[in-house]
Amino acid sequence: MAKADKTNFSCPSGFPEFLPGEKRLEMYLIDKIRQVFERYGFAPIETPAVERLEVLQAKGNQGDNIIYGLSPILPPNRQVEKDNAGESGSEERALKFDQTVPLAAYIARHLNELQFPFARYQMDMVFRGERAKDGRYRQFRQCDIDVVGRGNLSLLYDAQIPAIIAEIFQSINIGAFLIRINNRKVLTGFFQSISLAESQIVPCIRIIDAAEKIGEVKVEKSLIAEGLSDGQVAQVLEFTKIRGTVDDVLIKLKAIVENNSDTQILNSGIVELETVINGVRNLGVREDLFTIDLSIARGLDYYTGTVYETTLIGHEALGSICSGGRYEELVGMFVGEKMPGVGISIGLTRLMSRLIKAGILQSFSPTPAQVMVVNMQGDLMPLYLEVSQKLRQVGINTITSFEERGMGKQLQQADKRGIPLCVIIGSQEAELQKCALKNMKTGAQIEVALDQLAVEVKKQLE
Amino acid sequence: MAKADKTNFSCPSGFPEFLPGEKRLEMYLIDKIRQVFERYGFAPIETPAVERLEVLQAKGNQGDNIIYGLSPILPPNRQVEKDNAGESGSEERALKFDQTVPLAAYIARHLNELQFPFARYQMDMVFRGERAKDGRYRQFRQCDIDVVGRGNLSLLYDAQIPAIIAEIFQSINIGAFLIRINNRKVLTGFFQSISLAESQIVPCIRIIDAAEKIGEVKVEKSLIAEGLSDGQVAQVLEFTKIRGTVDDVLIKLKAIVENNSDTQILNSGIVELETVINGVRNLGVREDLFTIDLSIARGLDYYTGTVYETTLIGHEALGSICSGGRYEELVGMFVGEKMPGVGISIGLTRLMSRLIKAGILQSFSPTPAQVMVVNMQGDLMPLYLEVSQKLRQVGINTITSFEERGMGKQLQQADKRGIPLCVIIGSQEAELQKCALKNMKTGAQIEVALDQLAVEVKKQLE
Q: Which residues are noted in the entry as L-histidine-binding (chains A, B) (predicted)?
């Protein structure tokens, strides 16, 4: 059969798709992450991929993102029908570019149907008109949790976040990682305490945020360019050098408070940070998994308190693999009351594809089948089908081979697919109600009575 | 805090979203369906929501669907950048409207990376510019399986499909259902056997397809309008009246073959149908769950052999809740070789919302939390956190209450959220390392030592 035309079937640039073995890995990760989210009582929701454009753009939320608007394409030879007038109407719609703006809209839509504090997770696809380059996708899955309170929200919710991050990355076994915790009030308060003007604070936070990458000389130059005095520059540089255990850092921060006057915000930042750290400890998170990092600020403007980043030790170039923070205003602006929230996000598609490239994660086999029943002779097919069903009934993923090629070819195919076990039944075995069970990894082949097959398969799969 | 403006936050019309309890039900259904798919060795894939427009429109595949094209919307105050030139370029993209066309494209893209027969499942969202009316959505989840062969594909794959459908609907417990099986060659062959012209066959298949709804008188009129002779009309009416057990129907069909001359296609349709039915029986599907229904044809033009519909007994108005069939040409046209396939689709979003309305399915509780640890006094919080973590560590979904309201209010809240168990620890209990465990359903409250709590909770959750 010749191809009917020269259609280009490739994926649109920046829209990734996985082979079955990669998709199976992704589903494994999704299941693991979801399990941890649910352990802490987060409930799932899913907002539509499509929102009204005015919602996505409300309060300047579009930020720097290019978003995808929708325009209906009618089928050839079809006029706009009365029924579908809505499709050519004036309601502008677009694809969501994150989960946070839709969360705020969701809460506004269902305020009286939800219980607060509202703890939800979401693992949907989001869409951004990013430049399609290595590791940047235009469609990707984002795994988010947020807790949103009505009126107020305990700082202990902030403390749960590092416990959740730790449990997720321990459960998917990706090696050593470090959760870096900070509080934006500490940064803002510190800059106030050394008498910076309001307008200098955000640029200076950005400079500190970049300190690790750009080095001290460049930090100094940038601060001077922002108009800081020599004394202020020295104080900032000292601040960026604060290191040590969580307790060391808290002691050094408290010393700054003692030596300065205008420290109300700094002080409340330190109190928040200490409360969160104590909670993290009470939750039993291992001390080597978290730290205070005063240079963490997160780019997003809406964070107001606690902020988090997570670094994979030895793979710092990946950037933060899980980030977030507390925001006091974002949801409230949509609803019209005070609704503080705290949450984190894992950019799963990007994380997974980078961890595969770095050799930290491996694709799964391309099929979930654990057993293949070989087709030895066509007249035994009813028995093969019966044997397959009996395995499935006890929870074993099984395929029956309908191939008419020789046994060798069929075993080769099972091996290529990574199917661990093959069941072989010829006429002699059928008569004796037994089979040969071949382990494709070890090559070992044993004889098993058919009524013992499920038990033996389960044993070998363990 | 006042709302900053009058943004309309509602969902765009036809784009549904679920409350947490409904979403939890959907995830339960997804998990159940996926489990059955994997039992039969189907591997997951996910194609992008977005395809190149020419792929979606190739071979006239758009059909009657209105599809959504994408157009980038730049952020305010931003010009087109060189980097994002692609976003204003000429590559037209649109949202997928089904899973079958993307499956064909996926196979064309990965032909040499896949093993054949390629058995895959997909549970993604698809998008259609439907008129937004009751039960019709513009975004909905479709759960599809297909097996695609290279060159040929055993009819036993067709036989597995009813076994899979039966297992799914039995596992989600939605009451009695009937899988109706037919073969388009039987229909085409029958019409040839009574000497209809080629051009009359498709219209007549459509008339038979509608027979149940429109009744005999209208069928007769329609057939006359198609130009059939009185004798032909009588033969068609007799055909539509063929009823009975699977074996009865096969015997009656064979009688038609014996009494006619031009029956090559009819005969091969009957042989296929019989092979599939025998396979379904060998797979142990209960006889009352499937039938041959000669009026089933499926609207889609690409089906060439076996076709399936599934009816929920007592809820026939829902229409078919799971349908599909065999197609010989669809994938092959994309790839340029012979690639027959067979598959089915469950329109999950629509099915679920209609089953909820019909009272067949119920929403879950709005939280996965199984236990709430009550906040009796703030100074015991470290203990509450520790107790919560110990429950989570053995797989129990737990929330710690951070509320500062009285115990009664907190218990009320747990009850409202459908949390089955509450753990109550005051200073006395703390001292004695025990707690009160309250069952919210029965109201019963017992005293449990903290080191026995996990065991007791698991017992009560059973």
A: 98-100, 128, 142, 146, 298, 302-303
Question: What CATH number did the domain enclosing B329 receive?
Answer: 3.30.930.10
* B410 in any annotated domain: yes
Give me the percent of chain A exceeding a pLDDT of 70. Answer: 95
Give me the residues of B, 98-137, that contact A with CB < 8 A: 105-106, 108-110, 113-115, 117, 119-120, 125, 127, 129, 131-132
Task: For residue B436, give the nearest of B419, B416, B417, B456 by alpha carbon.
Answer: B456
Residue of A nearest to B280 (CA): A385
Of A44, A70, A156, the CB nearest to B24: A44
| Contact between residue B330 and residue B341 where contact means Cβ atoms under 8 Å apart | yes
Residue A73 to chain B, least CA–CA distance (Å): 5
Do A50 and B49 touch, CB atoms closer than 8 A? no
Q: Is B245 annotated as a binding residue?
A: no
**Chain segment A187-215, per-residue pLDDT in tens:** 999 999 999 999 999 899 889 888 878 88
pLDDT at B206 over 80: yes
Chain B nearest C-alpha distance from A260 (Å): 32
**Closest residue, chain B, to A55 (C-alpha):** B9
B98 known member of a binding site: yes
Do residues A284 and B386 touch, judged by C-beta distance below 8 A? yes
Q: B335 and B391: one domain? A: no
**Count: domains in chain A:** 2
β-pair type (A445-449, A434-439):
antiparallel
Judgement on whether residues A29 and A117 belong to the same structural domain of the protein: yes
How confident is residue A91, by pLDDT bands cut at 50, 70 and 90? confident
Judge whether residue B320 has pLDDT over 50. Answer: yes
Pairing of strands A290-292, A177-183: parallel
Q: Is residue B173 located within the same domain as residue B300?
A: yes
pLDDT in tens, B106-164: 999 999 999 999 999 999 999 998 775 655 899 999 999 999 999 999 999 999 999 99
Residue A4 lies in a domain: no
CB neighbours (10 Å) of residue B77? 6
Within a domain: B116: yes
At which of B323, B357, B391 does a domain end? B357
Q: Does residue A117 fall inside a structural domain?
A: yes
CATH at B393: 3.40.50.800
Nearest to B16 among A9, A48, A163 (CB): A48
Condensed to tens digits (0 to 9), the pLDDT of residues A294-315 reads 989 886 678 999 999 999 999 8
Residues β-bridged to residue B448: B435
ipTM: 0.94
**Tokens 């339960």 correspond to what residue?**
B28
Chain B closest CA to A296's CA: distance in Å?
26
Mean pLDDT of B394-407: 96
Same domain, residue pair A68 and A174: yes
Please name which of A52, A67, A53, A333 lies closest in space to residue B10, comparing C-alpha atoms: A52
What sign for the dihedral angle of Cα B263, B333, B142, A368? positive
Q: Are residues B350 and B376 in the same domain?
A: no
Q: pLDDT at residue A378 above 60?
A: yes
Residue that terminates a domain, selected from A334, A357, A380: A357
Please give the full DSSP string across A86-112, using - where no structure is assigned.
GGGSS--EEE-S-SHHHHHHHHHHHTT
pLDDT average, residue stretch A367-391: 98
Same domain flag for B257 and B391: no
Q: Which two tokens stand for residue B404?
A: 């500062």
What is the tens place of the pLDDT at every residue in A142-192? 999 999 999 999 999 999 999 999 999 999 989 999 999 999 999 999 999
pLDDT in tens, A259-275: 777 789 999 999 999 99
For residue B375, the enclosing domain spans 371-461
Whether residues A332 and A436 fall in one domain: no
Count other C-beta atoms under 10 Å from residue B74's C-beta. 18
Task: Clarify whether residues B304 and B207 are in a common domain.
Answer: yes
Q: How far apart are CA B36 and CA A262, in angstroms?
A: 64
